């Protein structure tokens, strides 16, 4: 039985959207979408992916659809889930309808680490990188606590106030303030070490890496868009720290 071309396009775009929203590279998204179409018998599919939108069409018909990409986070579990479903469809283990229904369940059902563990891990990353960058062990505990609180602040600001980059600004503002306070109370020694370590969980390292990979793969628009977003994120962090030093720098 011939599969609906509209359903095929919806399935390809849904798979691509999930991958793009969770940190996949553009070439990987396009390859997955085209492979799903090819396995459905549409060898002449055309896909065009950017950081903010996906376009998909079929050469054998006039069907074409567009899908927006809103949030962009890093969740490799969802990318793995989409790849697994795509392979299952390629191996004829599931039908296109089953693939579409399974893809709709990826976002709500894919397991993720509990938030308390993410906060704890942010503290571990902050304190260990502080040591690697030449910090003192005396600052280890303070950096751990400040890193946890900064990561927690970013999460709650993003949840309460949906303004892009504001979460990074508020988190870095808190990190800078707590770092100065810790040194002034003599529970830590070096403000620079505290700040450098505590902001590490906020730095958009994966976004910068994917930006360069997209540019090198020839996807200049997506690479530039991702790079711009990473630069604005880094700028928000820097402005937050600079604001603290401007207002309270004399305390240290």
UniProtKB/TrEMBL annotation:
Any single GO molecular-function term of the entry would be: transmembrane transporter activity
Q: Which keywords does this Swiss-Prot/TrEMBL entry list?
A: Cell membrane, Membrane, Transmembrane, Transmembrane helix
Single biological process term from Gene Ontology:
succinate transport
Note the InterPro entries from the entry: ThrE-like_N, ThrE_Dicarb/AminoAcid_Exp
Q: Its GO CC terms?
A: plasma membrane
> Is this entry keyworded Metal-binding?
no
Keyword Hydrolase present in the record's keywords: the answer is no
Q: Which residues form the Threonine/serine exporter-like N-terminal domain?
A: 11-247
**Any Pfam family hit:** ThrE
Signal peptide stretch = none
Show the stretches that span the lipid bilayer. 140-157, 169-188, 194-212, 232-251
The protein's location, in the record's own words, is:
Cell membrane
What is the membrane topology listed in the Swiss-Prot or TrEMBL record? Multi-pass membrane protein
In the record, the note on similarity to other proteins reads: Belongs to the ThrE exporter (TC 2.A.79) family.
What is the protein name for this chain?
A: Threonine/serine exporter-like N-terminal domain-containing protein
């Amino acid at each position: 039985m011939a599969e609906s071309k509209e359903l095929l396009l919806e399935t390809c775009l849904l798979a691509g959207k999930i991958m793009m929203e969770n940190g996949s590279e553009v070439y990987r998204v396009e390859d997955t979408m085209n492979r799903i179409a090819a396995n459905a018998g549409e060898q002449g599919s055309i896909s065009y992916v950017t950081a903010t939108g996906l376009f998909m069409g079929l050469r054998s018909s006039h069907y074409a659809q567009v899908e927006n990409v809103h949030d962009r986070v890093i969740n490799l579990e969802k990318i793995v889930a989409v790849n697994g479903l795509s392979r299952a469809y390629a191996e004829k283990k599931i039908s296109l309808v089953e693939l579409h229904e399974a893809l709709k369940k990826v976002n709500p059902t894919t397991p993720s680490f509990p938030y308390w563990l993410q906060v704890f891990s942010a503290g571990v990353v902050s304190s260990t990188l502080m040591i690697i960058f030449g910090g003192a062990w005396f600052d280890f505990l303070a950096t751990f606590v400040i890193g946890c609180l900064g990561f927690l602040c970013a999460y709650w600001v993003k949840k309460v106030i949906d303004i892009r980059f504001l979460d990074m600004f508020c988190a870095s503002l808190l990190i800078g303030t707590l770092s100065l306070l810790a040194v002034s109370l003599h529970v830590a020694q070096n403000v620079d070490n505290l700040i450098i370590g505590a902001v590490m969980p906020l730095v958009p390292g994966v976004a910068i890496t994917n930006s360069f990979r997209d540019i090198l793969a020839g996807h200049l628009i997506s690479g530039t868009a991702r790079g711009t977003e990473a630069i604005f994120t880094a700028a928000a962090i820097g402005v937050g720290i600079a604001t603290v030093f401007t207002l309270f720098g004399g305390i240290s």
